[in-house]
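Researcher: I'd like a candidate sequence for this fold, 968 residues long. If you have to choose between options at a position, lean toward the conservative one.
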């Protein structure tokens, strides 16, 4: 489908660097009903109706009013690439594409055009994906119109049983799917071709990647595609999910009317699931590619069957696993805080591989030290947990975090988005995940978590972490000849690390609160109320302004931000790297006497995040908290201004990891291309942020970076704070007086400098030759001065949206030149008023000239004739639909209140968006196209492969840039 994704449920992504620590955390018990016995099957939540039609089709119906006037529809098919015959490799995914290319009730392109006309955006809203074992179609529909709802179900009906598979449409779609396949080519794909047979232990999963094979996609007979659809798109393998602002009885009527007539084949093919055989011995694999942007280590222990356990006992086991997973992740994170860290990022976890299978894995993103330090750290930390378990204080913190997370989910039970519920029901259908509902789950957690003992958790982690054999150790990346270890060396290193003498972990005592005493409070000296916006403006005794917008959009969410002008612009070229990394460094060193690791432990059970940032021309603070944690959020903010911490070990750790991460980042052709585009557009200006180079970090010094941080953040002068969310003005005011009004407000510069960074003028063309694959990408950037206003910004955005419709329609659907890509940009006010609109169009090298010519032709049509009325109407309808829903989102209000301040516009304009949209006409866009697309002033950069198609490419890929060494 258009902008579809085929999903790999492999553990390459999942196992590589799982977990950032979940900050989850505790409300009174929600219900008093009797808890289940251990062997009881968990109940289905009362708010969802799960049913089955006589033909075997399963359905889920849940009335949910967030967002209002919208329903999320899903068609789920238990059929993916694993079911393809040899002549069908890639056709499960191709079938998904054909769902948008003609059906019983919608001719080719009619479906997408109709949905766009009712405000459904292609790609962002309307989408689908194909994986190994399933294909899922996602369709959000506005419910204001009964006709729209009826047609939404009609769309699902056609997807389920009414695709027409016109041969001309199939041939037209081949080029688009082949472009999608081409887009995925590169180092990861080349390495994965070697990894998957090992990762899946020779099972069918390694032979049936959803994207398929190019030769099959080029030559398959239409009958093969139709055969896949006949065999597997049948009601006994389908579910329809309906979640949203819709009457359940009406939803069920629609389901029965549209899907009750579907029939299963008389002699259905059995739906079998692929079996992953047991690994018989340990193996090592080393895979190298010169375009790999990073080096990665993966230690995968045996893959084991793991069906869902729908019982209460199973739920308890899941809680135990969650607890030890969090504690193990915390320990792994702490290893990166060393002055010479063993890896850039790493972790261990028990995770899903594919449906019905899971494995314990350890993985790391490697630094300059290579695989051996990472193996030592990962294996020894896992072994420490296996031998000695965890400490009582670690478990107590993890319990607080888990319970607080359940508390927040329970608090938001009536404010949860329909899409989240739909995803939950999808997992139930595909994997059997229980559906007890958050009311029950919170009760279970409150009853179970306190009683989970340290011995129980330690026993579980001992059972989870294998002690020795049948492991797969993979090293992949940009590995240089001469320093590339043999697979046997990796296996030996793992065994040696496992057998090393290890001692139990010592746990130190941590404070129980952030600040022992609050600061001497300031006061609120002025207060104003903006009734139209529901905003209260406060002036504090130190001059700081505070804008308060209490809402009922969420029950347990408070967003905070603060902004003023200044930023990196106040520092000269010699200081640019110190200024750029001043705030990230401060975050890595902590506050008061506490490191970031200490802070996580002190704040366990709370839901607080806060950090400062030093941007190019602005600077400020951003944070969030639950309603019960507002004071902690303000304490952390106060500490970040008044007591930033200095730590040379953590400084060295930060620099080492950042330098290592930058080491090979530009080996990826697309990364090097994007960096070249930015450099070319701005004439290699030194103040334009580029992709980091390792040598950049030699220019960062702890003393100077911290001095810059203190210069900008020792004073709150000029700051405007914004708070949006679930708080009461009367209750938050004393806290603001205590912490924000107590901030120093010494005299510092609070305006930015325009450093004169400007794009190059005239027509500039540059070709970049990088990469072994036959892939190209076209970047064209139009820039120039433009007067900023909300009206001009809206016209520019409308122009970009309309152009994207035409690029999709013409370059993709009609000409088959691209799979994705498009235009983006707009008008900026700071540091000077200007516009920038860029086109990014990945394509084949043979099609570069055609793509440029076609894109320019569409732009010229807009200049000469303006937009088609239907296209402009689609854009405006989508904007209005999105706006009406966004008005119930805290993040939308935060972004727009702060944006209004920064851009100097009246915040009341948030409320007149619909009127401004209505005022945008075709003539406005035609004039904008003439102004913003100046064919005498643009930068064109084109990425080409290093070698032309044919012999040169074969040699490049098989010789210089690829190397693989398996071993046992």
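Model: Candidate sequence:
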């Amino acid at each position: 489908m258009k902008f579809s994704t085929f999903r790999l449920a492999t553990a390459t992504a999942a196992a590589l660097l799982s977990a950032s620590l979940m900050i989850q955390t505790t409300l009174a018990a929600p219900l008093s009903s009797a808890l289940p016995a251990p062997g009881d099957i968990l109940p289905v939540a009362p708010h969802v109706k799960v049913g089955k039609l006589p033909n075997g089709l399963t359905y889920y119906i849940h009335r949910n009013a967030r967002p209002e006037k919208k329903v999320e529809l899903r068609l789920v098919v238990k059929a993916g690439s694993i079911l393809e015959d040899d002549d069908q490799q890639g056709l499960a995914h191709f079938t998904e594409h054909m769902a948008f290319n003609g059906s019983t009730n919608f001719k080719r392109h009619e479906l997408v055009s109709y949905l766009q006309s009712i405000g459904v955006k292609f790609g962002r809203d309307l989408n689908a994906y194909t994986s190994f074992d399933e294909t899922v179609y996602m369709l959000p529909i506005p419910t204001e119109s009964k006709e729209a709802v009826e047609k939404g179900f009609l769309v699902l009906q056609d997807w389920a049983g009414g695709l027409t598979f016109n041969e001309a449409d199939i041939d037209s779609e081949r080029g688009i799917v082949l472009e999608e396949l081409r887009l995925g080519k590169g180092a990861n794909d080349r390495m994965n071709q070697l990894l998957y047979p090992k990762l899946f232990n020779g099972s069918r999963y390694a032979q049936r990647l959803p994207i398929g094979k190019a030769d099959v996609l080029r030559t398959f007979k239409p009958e093969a595609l139709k055969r896949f659809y006949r065999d597997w798109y049948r009601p006994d393998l389908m579910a329809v999910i309906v979640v949203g602002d819709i009457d359940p009885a009406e939803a069920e009527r629609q389901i029965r009317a549209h899907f009750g007539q579907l029939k299963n084949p008389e002699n259905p093919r059995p739906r079998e699931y692929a079996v992953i055989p047991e690994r018989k011995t340990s193996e090592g694999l080393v895979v190298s590619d010169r375009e790999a942007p990073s080096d990665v280590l993966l230690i995968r222990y045996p893959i084991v069957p793991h069906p869902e356990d729908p019982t209460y006992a199973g739920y308890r086991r899941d809680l135990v696993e969650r607890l030890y997973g969090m504690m193990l992740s915390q320990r792994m994170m702490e290893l990166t805080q060393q002055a010479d860290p063993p890896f850039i990022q790493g972790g261990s976890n028990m995770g899903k591989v594919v449906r019905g299978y899971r494995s314990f894995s350890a993985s790391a993103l490697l630094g300059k030290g290579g695989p051996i330090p990472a193996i030592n750290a990962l294996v020894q930390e896992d072994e420490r947990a296996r031998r000695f378990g965890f400490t009582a204080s670690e478990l107590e913190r993890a319990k607080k975090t888990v319970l607080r997370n359940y508390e927040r989910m329970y608090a938001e039970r009536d404010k949860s988005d329909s899409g989240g519920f739909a995803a939950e029901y999808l997992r139930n259908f595909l994997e059997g995940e229980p559906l007890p509902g958050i009311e029950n789950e919170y009760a279970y957690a409150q009853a179970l978590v306190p009683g989970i003992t340290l011995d129980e958790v330690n026993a579980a982690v001992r059972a989870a972490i294998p002690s020795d054999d049948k492991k797969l150790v993979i090293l992949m990346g940009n590995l240089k000849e001469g320093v590339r270890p043999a697979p046997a060396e990796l296996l030996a290193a793992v065994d040696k690390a496992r057998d090393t003498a290890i001692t139990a972990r010592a746990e130190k005592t941590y404070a129980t609160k952030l600040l022992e005493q609050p600061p001497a409070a300031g006061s609120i000296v002025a207060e104003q109320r903006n009734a139209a916006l529901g905003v209260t403006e406060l002036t504090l005794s130190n001059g700081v302004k505070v804008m308060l917008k209490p809402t009922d959009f969420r029950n347990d969410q408070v967003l905070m931000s603060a902004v003023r002008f200044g930023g990196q612009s106040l520092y000269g070229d010699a200081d640019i790297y110190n200024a750029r990394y001043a705030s990230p460094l401060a975050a890595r060193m902590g506050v008061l006497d506490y490191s970031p690791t200490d802070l996580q432990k002190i704040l366990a059970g709370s839901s607080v995040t806060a950090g400062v940032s030093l941007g190019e021309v602005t600077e400020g603070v951003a944070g969030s908290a639950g309603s019960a944690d507002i004071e902690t959020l303000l304490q952390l903010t106060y500490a970040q201004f008044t007591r930033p911490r200095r730590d040379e070990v953590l400084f060295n750790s930060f620099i080492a990891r950042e330098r290592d991460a930058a080491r090979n980042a530009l080996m990826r052709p697309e990364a090097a291309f994007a960096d070249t585009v930015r450099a070319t557009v701005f004439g290699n200006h030194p103040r334009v942020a580029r992709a980091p180079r390792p040598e950049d970090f030699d220019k960062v010094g702890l003393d100077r970076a911290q001095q810059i941080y203190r210069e900008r953040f020792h004073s709150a002068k000029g700051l405007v704070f914004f708070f949006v969310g679930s708080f009461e003005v009367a209750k938050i005011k004393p806290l603001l007086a205590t912490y924000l009004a107590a901030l120093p407000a010494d005299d510092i510069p609070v305006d930015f400098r325009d450093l004169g960074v400007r794009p190059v003028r005239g027509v500039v063309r540059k070709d970049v030759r990088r990469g072994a694959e036959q892939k190209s990408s076209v970047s064209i950037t139009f820039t120039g001065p433009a007067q900023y206003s909300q009206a001009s910004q809206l016209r520019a955005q409308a122009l970009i949206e309309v152009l994207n419709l035409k690029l999709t329609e013409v370059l993709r659907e009609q000409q088959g030149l691209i799979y994705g890509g498009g235009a983006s940009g707009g008008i900026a006010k700071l540091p000077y008023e200007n516009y920038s609109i860029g086109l990014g169009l990945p394509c084949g090298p043979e099609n570069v000239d055609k793509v440029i010519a076609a894109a320019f032709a569409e732009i010229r049509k807009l200049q000469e004739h303006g937009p088609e009325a239907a296209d402009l109407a689609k854009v405006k309808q989508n904007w209005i639909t999105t706006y009406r829903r966004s008005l119930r989102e805290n993040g939308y209000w935060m972004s727009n209140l702060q944006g209004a301040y920064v851009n100097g516009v009246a915040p009341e304009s948030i409320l007149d968006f619909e009127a401004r949209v209505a005022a945008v006409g075709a003539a406005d866009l035609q004039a904008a196209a003439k102004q913003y697309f100046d064919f005498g002033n643009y930068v064109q950069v084109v990425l080409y492969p290093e070698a032309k198609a044919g012999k040169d490419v074969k040699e490049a890929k098989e010789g210089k840039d690829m190397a693989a060494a398996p071993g046992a």
